[in-house]
């Protein structure tokens, strides 16, 4: 199909989008879902956060969604969860509650956009019984050391076999001094891993929340999911030194395991909103990831839950973004160059510069089968190497809906100095 024909076909299914008031179709389609996955094309774009927040508010108020799960560490997100639920000593305001986000890249969650959403959640939860409050949780696995320390602190008051198991796990990891690379080498190359200690710890904490009092129920969940984060991190670091694709798979399978646990905790009829990068929530089978043997959250949830999963991707043509030049580098506000010719973003811009919403499936199979580059910006970004930022994608098979924002701006970190 020539380019003009494809543009004409896409323009026929593109709807105007100016914000949550134009998202009625998404909200109504979410009526049948248990998981609504809200993506982002970068970790540093303000509009991706604000539109996800607006959609989440509607899903919570109109459809009864019970929690938001994000691509963040469990301990720091749990601190924010305590704040939005109005717990004592959880922070004087959202900015204070976000201070636990100290791991690079801090701007992903310690930003003005999240602070505003957290204040809304706290207000929404005010006066509700504990079991009806909407939670905010992190489902990633990078918090190995933080989660061990959280477990030791919690279990010290309980004593017994659980504390002894946590101490054994801590003693196993302690020689590596908080250095993930050191542990990865020892575990992968020399067989000096801590897998047995971690599995034993998780087993001892499994499902203790089921028999806990209302007051202690979420505390027991917190302990178990810290142990699950330790197990996931141990597996991830042990694997990453040998197989890049497999370490990715370990991470996304872990995030799905956490989501499934959270769904059980919140009850049979609970519903989840998930905020992650497009590369996690968009079905990997609709991209070239499948050729590398990679899976992701979107694919795994669809395989398990079918039509109960509704995935919304995001993209932009140009603007600015917060990112680093290398891993651990200072945050910078960078220009997002105009999308490459032939990409989905460039095609949607050529149709017209207004923001757009695409809903799938469309009635046009030719559009459904089209594969083009789809931009993905991570926490590290090099605009001068733009070609490497595109993932070949069949858009309508990767997502159930796609929100295109023609021009976007960088989000607003709370504490990090931003280098222009």
From TrEMBL:
Superkingdom classification of source: Bacteria
One GO BP annotation of this record: response to antibiotic
A Pfam family matched in the record: Erythro_esteras
InterPro entries listed in its UniProt record: Emycin_Estase, Hydrolase/PRTase-associated, UCP036794_erythomycin
PANTHER family, sorted: ESTERASE, PUTATIVE (AFU_ORTHOLOGUE AFUA_1G05850)-RELATED
Protein name in the entry: Erythromycin esterase family protein
Record organism: Cohnella thailandensis
């Amino acid at each position: 199909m020539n380019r003009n024909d494809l543009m004409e076909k896409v323009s026929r299914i593109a709807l105007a989008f100016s914000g949550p008031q134009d998202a009625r179709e998404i909200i109504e389609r979410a009526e049948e879902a248990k998981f609504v996955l809200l993506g982002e094309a970068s970790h540093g774009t303000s509009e991706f956060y604000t539109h996800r927040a607006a959609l989440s508010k509607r899903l919570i108020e109109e459809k009864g969604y019970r929690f938001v799960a994000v691509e963040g560490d469990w301990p720091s997100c749990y601190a924010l969860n305590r704040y939005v639920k109005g717990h004592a000593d959880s922070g004087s305001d959202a900015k204070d509650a976000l201070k636990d986000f100290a791991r690079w890249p801090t701007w992903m969650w310690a930003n003005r956009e999240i602070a505003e959403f957290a204040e809304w959640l706290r207000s929404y939860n005010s006066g509700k019984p504990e079991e009806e409050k909407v939670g905010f949780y992190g489902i990633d696995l990078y918090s190995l050391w933080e989660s061990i320390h959280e477990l030791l602190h919690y279990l010290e008051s309980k004593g017994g076999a659980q504390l002894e198991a946590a101490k054994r796990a801590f003693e196993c990891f302690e020689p590596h001094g908080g250095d993930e690379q050191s542990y990865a080498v020892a575990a992968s190359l020399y067989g000096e891993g801590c897998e047995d200690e971690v599995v034993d710890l998780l087993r001892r904490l499994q499902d203790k929340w089921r028999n806990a009092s209302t007051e202690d129920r979420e505390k027991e969940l917190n302990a178990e999911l810290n142990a699950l984060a330790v197990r996931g991190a141990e597996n991830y670091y042990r694997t990453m030194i040998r197989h890049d694709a497999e370490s990715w798979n370990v991470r996304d399978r872990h995030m799905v395991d956490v989501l499934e646990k959270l769904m059980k905790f919140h009850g049979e009829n609970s519903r989840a909103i998930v905020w992650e990068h497009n590369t996690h929530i968009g079905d990997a089978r609709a991209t070239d990831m499948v050729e590398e043997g990679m899976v992701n959250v979107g694919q795994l949830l669809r395989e398990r839950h079918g039509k109960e999963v509704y995935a919304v991707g995001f993209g932009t043509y140009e603007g600015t973004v917060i990112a680093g030049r290398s891993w651990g580098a200072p945050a910078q506000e960078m220009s997002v160059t105009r999308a490459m010719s032939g990409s989905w973003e460039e095609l949607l811009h050529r149709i017209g510069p207004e923001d757009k919403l695409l809903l799938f499936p469309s009635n046009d199979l030719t559009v459904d089968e089209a594969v083009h580059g789809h931009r993905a910006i991570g926490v590290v970004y090099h605009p001068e190497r733009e070609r490497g930022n595109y993932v070949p994608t069949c858009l309508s098979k990767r997502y159930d809906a796609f929100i295109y924002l023609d021009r976007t701006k960088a989000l607003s970190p709370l504490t990090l100095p931003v280098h222009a």
